[in-house]
Amino acid sequence: MLLSVNIDEAGYSPDSTVLKNIHFSVDSGELVGLIGPNGAGKSSTIKSILGIMKNVKGDCQASNYAYIPERPILYEKLTLWEHIEFLLTTLQTDEKLYMTRANELLKQFQLSEFIHRYPESFSKGMQQKVMLVLAFLRQPDLYIVDEPFMGLDPRAVKRLLQSLQSEKERGAGILMSTHILDTAEKICDRFVLISNGRLIVQGTLDEIRERSGIRGGSLLDCFDVLTEGVSDVRK
Ligand SMILES: Nc1ncnc2c1ncn2[C@@H]1O[C@H](COP(=O)(O)OP(=O)(O)OP(=O)(O)O)[C@@H](O)[C@H]1O
Known about the structure:
This protein is of the alpha/beta class. Strand 1 and strand 2 form a beta hairpin. Helix 3 packs antiparallel against helix 4. The structure holds adenosine-5'-triphosphate. The site of adenosine-5'-triphosphate has 12 residues, from helix 1. Keywords: ATP-binding, Nucleotide-binding, Transport. InterPro entries: AAA+_ATPase, ABC_transporter-like_ATP-bd, ABC_transporter-like_CS, ABC_Transporter_VariousFunc, P-loop_NTPase. It comes from Sporolactobacillus shoreae. This is ABC transporter ATP-binding protein.
């Protein structure tokens, strides 16, 4: 198991709960979609996994991971290529192979011509692509990806989906939060549905359809049925 999430309760302060009883795992070679409407608790779940949520009752175990945040985080004073060189200094890897892979990824994500520029001056989509390139270069056991589709053009989305697929085939596990349900439905092996800070259901699309009683329904249809009347954990 690459990720084991056991959150009994979590909140931004000791007296406010935003998550309750969130328990799930991610195995090698699987892409798990963390799904839920705005404010459901997806980012809070990810923060709990990353250890940056202060008030967590429970325990999350993650193997060597790359985190791709919703908003790109880049170094102001480094060019794109310097980001790549800097990452290399933190890894024990074959430099030649690494540089070859870096150039391939930069080409795939249409960034080759910008390597000597500062990502700070890039568009949001380009910055997001830099984050993806840096994560895929590392080839970690686990990817934790927060809302990756925002701001990406269709070609970049396609490249992202291809890269996720090949990383899965390599044996990586992926936890991906999104509310782009039609894409999630196509690519995720399993889903964890969160609403109002609670885990509503988890399983494959077929299992979720069965639980919601909508045969052949879309993830959105199932989600609507399953989240109806769920009380809020916040107090
Ligand atoms: N920094 C914070 N301080 C206090 N409360 C927060 C903070 N960030 C989020 N919350 C609250 O935690 C709850 C869950 O929010 P969270 O950001 O985890 O939702 P989300 O599912 O990621 O939503 P979205 O899809 O809009 O990104 C919300 O009630 C939100 O108001």
